[in-house]
């Protein structure tokens, strides 16, 4: 199985984030991907490719031009955490860099630093290479990528996410056939939902109930898409502490919906924060459960592009990724 990794992801490495009314250690460090790559590199099932190239962010195809323009043009020697947000969507753009970011940012856990834009360019190229590979070979592929992406919408970003990797892949694969996205991160992929809410790209998400978990304002069962997208957005919120068997039952229901859609390609937004030991999750799913999730998804029998999202139990992330990828390799 081919594994694609952005070579310079480690250059985006904030020290802190502001969360739950306090300054805490940044929860999405380079170690997340480094541990994954270290583990997969010693397993003969996987061929790890480090992607060194970069692509202009303006070519992404899913995000608001003005937001991406700010990413491209920010010049800073520190990590910026905006403290003022454009909640009324005023069009006037301020001159101060942090305030520019605040026009589109929805939380205080997503700092923008000196090398963030360069890392995003490298990540964008990594997604493009993975898409080209799966289109050419129809083989399953895994993208060990950071920053993650599913909280980045058309004109907003947050939740450690700046650009939506799964959505960027989907718009490219859609030129070849029908695309479904299955999001199994602990947190709802509000960005992916936003991008495809009026589109016939099927988005199905299993996640913690947003009444009690981030991102709070998106992810409810009644959100089913609009216009051409009506019926193509399926949210399956689950209670805190959901057990393995209950999760697997919900997953089977999600996979029935996807199977009925008959996609040419499936994009799996993979959040390992569903693991029982994750500091940002509450689900009770052990490593065998992760493997069973992989088995159930693999049974669909369509090429799967797996994009890394969350997963913050860093000491166990290598074992966890092997468990869920094994059925695909």
Report on this model:
This protein is 31% helix and 15% strand. The chain has one domain (2-67, 114-328): 3-Layer(aba) Sandwich (Arginase, Chain A), CATH 3.40.800.20. The mean pLDDT is 97. The longest helix has 22 residues, at 116-137. It contains 9 helices and 10 strands. The protein has an 8-stranded parallel beta sheet, sandwiched between helices. A two-stranded antiparallel sheet has the order 2-3. The chain is of the alpha/beta class. It starts with a strand and ends with a helix. Its cofactor is Zn(2+). This is Histone deacetylase domain-containing protein. Residues 28-325 form the Histone deacetylase domain. Belongs to the histone deacetylase family. GO terms for molecular function: histone deacetylase activity; hydrolase activity; metal ion binding.
The overall pLDDT, averaged over residues, is: 97
Question: What is the share of helical residues?
Answer: 25-40%
Tell me the CATH topology: Arginase, Chain A
Strand order of the largest sheet: 4-1-5-10-9-6-7-8
Count of separate structural domains:
1
- Rg calculated over all Cα atoms: 18 Å
**Can you say what the CATH homologous superfamily is?**
Histone deacetylase domain
What is the correct CATH architecture? 3-Layer(aba) Sandwich
Helix tally equals: 9
Low-confidence stretches: none
Written as H for each helix and E for each strand, in order along the chain, the element string is EEEHEHHHEHEHEEHEHEH
Give the termini separation: 5 Å
Silhouette: globular
Largest sheet features: 8 strands, parallel
Task: Work out the strand percent.
Answer: 15-25%
């Amino acid at each position: 199985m081919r594994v694609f990794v952005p070579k310079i992801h480690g250059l985006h490495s904030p020290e802190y984030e502001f969360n739950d009314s306090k300054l805490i250690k940044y929860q999405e460090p380079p170690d997340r991907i480094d541990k994954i790559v270290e583990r997969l590199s010693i397993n003969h099932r996987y061929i790890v490719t480090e992607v060194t190239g970069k692509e202009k962010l303006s070519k992404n195809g899913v995000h608001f031009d003005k937001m991406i323009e700010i990413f491209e043009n920010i010049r800073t020697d520190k990590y910026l955490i905006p403290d003022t947000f454009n909640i009324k969507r005023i069009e006037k753009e301020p001159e101060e860099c942090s305030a520019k970011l605040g026009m589109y940012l929805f939380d205080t856990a997503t700092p923008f630093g000196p090398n963030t834009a360069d890392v995003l360019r490298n990540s964008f190229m990594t997604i493009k290479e993975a898409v080209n590979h799966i289109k050419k070979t129809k083989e399953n592929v895994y993208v060990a990528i950071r920053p993650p992406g599913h909280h980045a919408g058309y004109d907003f970003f947050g939740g450690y996410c700046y650009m939506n990797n799964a959505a960027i892949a989907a718009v490219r694969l859609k030129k070849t056939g029908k695309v479904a996205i299955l999001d199994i991160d602990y947190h709802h992929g509000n960005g992916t939902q936003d991008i495809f809410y009026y589109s016939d790209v099927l988005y199905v998400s299993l996640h913690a109930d947003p009444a009690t978990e981030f991102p709070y304002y998106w992810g409810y069962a009644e959100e089913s898409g609009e216009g051409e997208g009506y019926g193509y957005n399926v949210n399956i919120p689950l209670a805190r502490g959901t057990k393995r068997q209950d999760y697997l039952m919900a997953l089977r229901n999600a996979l029935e919906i996807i199977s009925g859609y008959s996609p040419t390609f499936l994009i799996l937004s993979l959040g390992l924060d569903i693991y029982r030991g994750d500091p940002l999750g509450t689900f009770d799913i052990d490593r065998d459960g992760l493997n069973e999730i992989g088995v159930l998804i693999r049974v669909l029998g369509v090429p799967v592009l797996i994009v890394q999202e969350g997963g913050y139990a860093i000491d166990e992330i290598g074992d966890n990724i092997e468990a869920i990828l094994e059925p695909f390799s």
